[in-house]
Each structure stands twice: as C-alpha cells, then as structure tokens.
Amino acid sequence: ATCGHGCKYGECMGPNKCKCFPGFTGKTCNQDLNECGLKPRPCEHRCMNTHGSYKCYCLNGYMLMPDGTCASSRTCAMVNCQYGCEEVKGQVQCLCPSGGLQLGPNGRTCIDIDECSTGKAVCSYNRRCVNTFGSFYCKCQLGYELKYTGGRYNCVDVNECVTNTHRCNLHAECLNTQGSFQCKCKQGYRGSGFDCA
C-alpha cells in the first residue's frame, strides 16, 4: 500500500488510505483529535485536550480516581485545588493535569511551564518551538513549510522566487536561499534589489 501524502501519525492501509493512531484524525492523520469533544465525554468532570491524548481532572472538592472518575473528598474540598487533588499517605496534594503545568506558589493553582524558554523542549534544527498552555509543539522555521518527502514529513525550503512571495524590485532578479531569498538588481540598474534605479 502506498500513501502519496503519507500518514503522519498513522499507517498506510491501502492506496492513499491511512489508519490513524489513537488520538489523531484527518486524511493523513496529521490532526490532533479533540477527545474532550467526543460523545460520550471521556471524563466525568473536566477534560483537557493534549497532543494525541487527553487528561481528566476533577472539580474542587473531588479527587481523581485511577479509572478517571471523580470521588467526593472532604479533605480535597478543604484544600481548594484548581484541578482536583490526590491523597498520599494522609497528605493532600493538588494536581496539575499536564506535565507542562506546575503548581503555583499558592500550591493550589497550576501555572504554565514555558518549555521553549527553559530548554525542556527539543526541536530539530529547521523547526522552532511554540509554547502552548500545558505543552508545546515544533513548527517549521520561517521560510520553510511542512511537506511529505522521502517517506516522511520534513520542513523544506520555500522557494519564494517560484511562489512569488518575494518583494524584489521589478528590475531585480530573485535568488532563492535556504529559508529565505535575495534580490539583485539587473544589469544596468543599481540598488538594494528591493529598490533599483
């Protein structure tokens, strides 16, 4: 089976037919499935969508159980946690629904960890890190676009000269470079390439 456009988070099952891994959707399995919007809802109280998955959390006064349900807890109600709590050896601890969140100074609310600025996120050289609440993702650098080549998804250079997205002067030549472009005034003209006289 060959899939001309590839299956980013899935496998090719027939001519251009992808079977997506759990948590992903779309013709090429490149879109995150928002499980929180599914019927029936996967969580009893609150749901947080994550890349390829989801996390359940409980309202204040409830405790998240191993099966994802929420149990009423007098001790949790007293602590007043933003995203529910757990009891460990008689100690009540507030929870954060994602590894990209950490407990704030008050020990009750969760604050975002910027993985891009802390260096926790690792993106390949031609991708840049974009922080999101509770997570991050890697996006192609400016001047590159995501394309399916050689059996996988890669960030490939955009040829601004061909796509006509350059700002070269009418009397200048466009020269494509990796991730960018240059403008050079034609013979008989002088200037920066953006302005030629």
UniProtKB/TrEMBL annotation:
<feature type="domain" description="EGF-like">
    <location>
        <begin position="32"/>
        <end position="71"/>
    </location>
</feature>
<keyword id="KW-0106">Calcium</keyword>
<keyword id="KW-0130">Cell adhesion</keyword>
<feature type="domain" description="EGF-like">
    <location>
        <begin position="157"/>
        <end position="195"/>
    </location>
</feature>
<protein>
    <submittedName>
        <fullName>EGFL6 protein</fullName>
    </submittedName>
</protein>
<keyword id="KW-1015">Disulfide bond</keyword>
<keyword id="KW-0732">Signal</keyword>
<dbReference type="GO" id="GO:0005509">
    <property type="term" value="F:calcium ion binding"/>
</dbReference>
<keyword id="KW-0245">EGF-like domain</keyword>
<dbReference type="InterPro" id="IPR049883">
    <property type="entry name" value="NOTCH1_EGF-like"/>
</dbReference>
<comment type="similarity">
    <text>Belongs to the nephronectin family.</text>
</comment>
<keyword id="KW-0272">Extracellular matrix</keyword>
<dbReference type="Pfam" id="PF07645">
    <property type="entry name" value="EGF_CA"/>
</dbReference>
<dbReference type="InterPro" id="IPR000742">
    <property type="entry name" value="EGF"/>
</dbReference>
<dbReference type="InterPro" id="IPR009030">
    <property type="entry name" value="Growth_fac_rcpt_cys_sf"/>
</dbReference>
<dbReference type="InterPro" id="IPR000152">
    <property type="entry name" value="EGF-type_Asp/Asn_hydroxyl_site"/>
</dbReference>
<feature type="domain" description="EGF-like">
    <location>
        <begin position="112"/>
        <end position="150"/>
    </location>
</feature>
<dbReference type="GO" id="GO:0007155">
    <property type="term" value="P:cell adhesion"/>
</dbReference>
<dbReference type="InterPro" id="IPR018097">
    <property type="entry name" value="EGF_Ca-bd_CS"/>
</dbReference>
<dbReference type="GO" id="GO:0030154">
    <property type="term" value="P:cell differentiation"/>
</dbReference>
<dbReference type="InterPro" id="IPR001881">
    <property type="entry name" value="EGF-like_Ca-bd_dom"/>
</dbReference>
<keyword id="KW-0217">Developmental protein</keyword>
<keyword id="KW-0221">Differentiation</keyword>
<keyword id="KW-0677">Repeat</keyword>
<keyword id="KW-0964">Secreted</keyword>
<dbReference type="InterPro" id="IPR052235">
    <property type="entry name" value="Nephronectin_domain"/>
</dbReference>
